[in-house]
Amino acid sequence: MGSGGLEDMVSPQFARAPSFAIVMVEGDRIVGIDVVNNPYQIGGGGVGPMVAEMLAQRGVSVVIAGSIGPNAMAVLAQRGIAAFPAPPGSRVIDAVEVAARRKLKGD
Length: 107
Description:
Layout: E1 19-26, E2 29-37, H1 47-57, E3 62-65, H2 70-78, E4 82-85, H3 92-105
Helix pairs in contact: 1-2
């Protein structure tokens, strides 16, 4: 939500997020961020798989969102991308830190 930085809120809906903060993490440190506008934010149904594929092509390995539809989830799983839920009102930075800890622990 918002302009897509680390201090913005995680979108409640994956495929309809206005932008994606692609956060590069090494160990327990954030080493970079790239904000990408979502070209599928407005449109008909079925955009979830297109968004999932777009992020896969950018090398994303983890997706964090409030809710991810089943078709998008299927594409993420096929591409080996982990998906983590974020509670409503979560800041991007907080959600990334939680997901990074969970991934390191193997959850």
